[in-house]
Specification:
The complex is a heterodimer of chains A (about 230) and B (about 325).
Chain A: E1 2-11, E2 14-24, E3 29-34, H1 40-48, E4 54-59, E5 62-63, H2 69-74, E6 77-80, H3 92-99, H4 111-117, H5 119-123, H6 134-147, E7 152-156, H7 164-179, E8 183-188, H8 192-197, E9 200-205, E10 208-213, H9 215-220, H10 222-229
Parallel strand pairs in A: 3-8, 3-9, 6-7, 7-8
Antiparallel strand pairs in A: 1-2, 1-4, 4-5, 9-10
Helix pairs in contact in A: 3-6
Chain B: H1 2-32, H2 39-57, H3 59-86, H4 90-112, E1 128-132, E2 135-138, H5 139-161, H6 163-173, H7 175-180, H8 185-211, H9 217-232, H10 237-257, H11 262-267, H12 277-282, H13 286-289, H14 293-304
Antiparallel strand pairs in B: 1-2
Helix pairs in contact in B: 1-5, 1-8, 1-9, 1-10, 2-3, 2-4, 2-8, 2-9, 3-4, 3-8, 5-6, 5-8, 6-8, 9-10, 9-14
Classes of the chains: A alpha/beta (about 230), B mainly alpha (about 325).
The complex binds adenosine-5'-triphosphate and magnesium ion.
């Protein structure tokens, strides 16, 4: 589904990504773990075309490195950024509407599905997104991206700053998404939900992948956890 | 009383015309960060296109096609002029639009000459709609008012209700997010620019035959439009509306009433009999200073409230 090979990216002169390789297969949940500032968000932004990528990024057997982000999104790649980026002056409903790409094809998700999953959002359908709580905003961002009917969603630190029950809710939603046949690339710092729901995990350190395996492999690999994950 | 009503009416009309220019200018600014110095040139282009089209097929087709053409020219300017300049920063963009204003003026002079062209009010509307206490009010002015209010309502509905309007609102603060949801933001920018130019074009079509269609019309009106958006607050449509109406009404009132400013000078102990330079000063009336009033307001606004009435950021 997604194959990234030898991906490099720069911010000005600083060489942030130094040859990242990673794969996501159809229907798979894959996590990209690592400490603050190692380049996880940059990896996703480079895949999405928001940061200029060098190297090869293939999505559904098509080279997407160098394409504009709206075109990449239209191929079926969804992106939920870490800072949430809801449209604060637009209502919840309008935020969700803008998630749709305006194509005629029937989408996997309707607004009704979103409201069923998150009754909170239905109650606040006509309130501006800017006044929602952090948790509600996180749900809204994910739902907004789903409205565009992606085949693969990249979610950047969805549990950051959320209360424990909400973290569980996020995990449920991710499982529900995967249950409908989508692939997920989840970026996390904590292992809590990542180990529970992922089929495979990557650990990133200083712009490169330093570990790849199943959640169990990672649990058993004390040295990788100590060197690259735990603080 | 009738003087008040008529100058109110004319003031609102002039204000709505200013708003048609200011709304596009402020929309483009808030979306793309570009202060388009050539904006009033699109107003002028609208008037000339309308003159040319109405010469062949009459005023009504011109009312529709001239703004459309102006919009297309505007979109092309964004796509092939502004966009390549964009990566050199806002100063480069500003200089580009500054140069564009002069280029457009020169080109218009080359095609239509330096003297005003005979673009007239359409015969069908060239009569007095009503006469009240000896003052005539022309049907064409009523028509201008109807068109401008109609455009204003349509603009607000478009921004608030349509999908594209929502995209524009969202792109104001989060262009990248809108783009990664699969919407082609550069193209939205291009057509918003064209749309803003078309609004100025409509003002040119309905205003050119009253104000006069000549190569200096852009330079005459342009600065006042900037005053409007600064006073209203850069990026605010409501601010642009209020400021445009305010300036329109102020201008007409100052001229119609033409109040002598002498009492103000008298407060500072200046004598009416003063000779020389002071003499011209004390004889000033509001009508005489009407042309500088907007700029006076601009200066005061920048000193005391740099973000304007409804703006969210300082100029
Ligand atoms: N816009 C930017 N300009 C310059 N440097 C940046 C920019 N964004 C990120 N960086 C730097 O690039 C490196 C990688 O950032 P990135 O956002 O990918 O980290 P991350 O792994 O997502 O961690 P976190 O989200 O916890 O900060 C960091 O050292 C960061 O300081
Ligand atoms: Mg990050």
């Amino acid at each position: 589904m997604l194959e990234v090979r030898d991906l490099h990216a720069y911010y000005g002169k600083s060489h942030i990504l130094q040859g990242v390789d990673l794969d996501v297969k159809p229907g798979e949940i894959v996590s990209l773990l690592g400490r603050n500032g190692v380049g996880r968000s940059t990896t996703i932004k480079a895949i999405m075309g928001e940061v200029e990528p060098q190297g090869s990024i293939r999505f559904k057997d098509q080279e997407i490195a160098g394409m504009k982000s709206h075109a990449i999104a239209r191929l079926g790649l969804g992106y939920v950024p870490e800072n949430r980026d809801i449209f604060p002056t637009l209502t919840v409903r309008q935020n969700l509407l803008l998630g749709q790409k305006g194509t005629r094809n029937a989408a996997r998700w309707s607004m009704e599905d979103m409201f069923k999953l998150f009754p909170n959002l239905r109650e606040r359908a006509d309130t501006p997104g800017g006044v929602l709580s952090g948790g509600e905003q996180q749900m809204l961002t994910m739902c907004r991206t789903l409205m565009g009917d992606p085949d693969l969603v990249m979610v950047d630190e969805p549990t950051e700053g959320l209360a424990p029950q909400l973290v569980e809710k996020v995990a449920e939603l991710l499982n529900e998404i995967a249950g409908r046949g989508l692939s997920i690339l989840l970026v996390e710092q904590k292992l809590t939900i990542a180990l529970k729901i992922s089929a495979r995990v990557y650990v990133m350190g200083h712009g490169e992948i330093v570990f790849e395996g199943t959640p169990d492999d990672l649990k058993n690999n004390e040295s990788v956890r100590q060197e690259w994950l735990e603080v | 009383m009738e003087v008040f009503l008529f100058s109110m009416f004319n003031g609102v009309l002039y204000g709505m015309l200013l708003f048609m220019l200011a709304s596009g200018l402020t929309l483009i600014f808030s979306l793309m960060g570009v202060l388009n110095f050539a904006h009033a040139s699109f107003f002028m282009l609208g008037a000339y296109f309308a003159y040319q089209i109405s010469k062949y097929v009459g005023f009504w087709p011109a009312l529709v096609f001239a703004p459309l053409l102006v919009g297309v020219v505007g979109a092309a300017v964004e796509r092939y002029g502004l966009r390549p300049v964009h990566r050199f920063g806002h100063v480069a963009e500003l200089l580009f639009t500054f140069g564009l204003a002069f280029v457009m003026e020169e080109v218009i002079q080359m095609i239509w000459g330096k003297v005003p062209v005979p673009y007239d009010v359409p015969a069908a509307l060239n009569f007095a709609a009503f006469t009240w206490r000896g003052l005539d009010y022309s049907a064409y002015r009523l028509f201008m008012l109807v068109v401008s209010v109609g455009i204003f309502v349509a603009l607000f509905l478009f921004i608030a209700k349509t999908r594209v309007g929502l995209m524009i609102q969202a792109a104001l603060s989060h262009p990248q997010m809108v783009q990664s949801l699969g919407h082609d933001v550069p193209t939205i920018f291009m057509w918003t620019f064209g749309f803003g130019c078309a609004l100025a074009g409509i003002a040119g079509v309905i205003g050119g035959n009253v104000l006069g269609t000549e190569p200096a019309m852009a330079i005459t009106l342009g600065p006042i439009v900037f005053v409007v958006i600064v006073i209203g607050g850069l990026g605010s449509l409501w601010g642009a509306l209020i400021a445009a109406l305010f300036i329109g009404i102020m201008d007409n009132m100052a001229i119609s009433y033409d109040i002598a400013l002498f009492p103000i000078f008298a407060m500072f102990g200046v004598e009416r009999e003063a000779e020389g330079i002071m003499r011209d000063l004390v004889d000033l009336t509001t009508g005489g200073i009407a042309p500088v009033l907007p700029y006076l307001l601009l200066v005061l606004m920048l000193i005391f409230r740099p973000r304007g009435l409804f703006g969210t950021r300082d100029v």
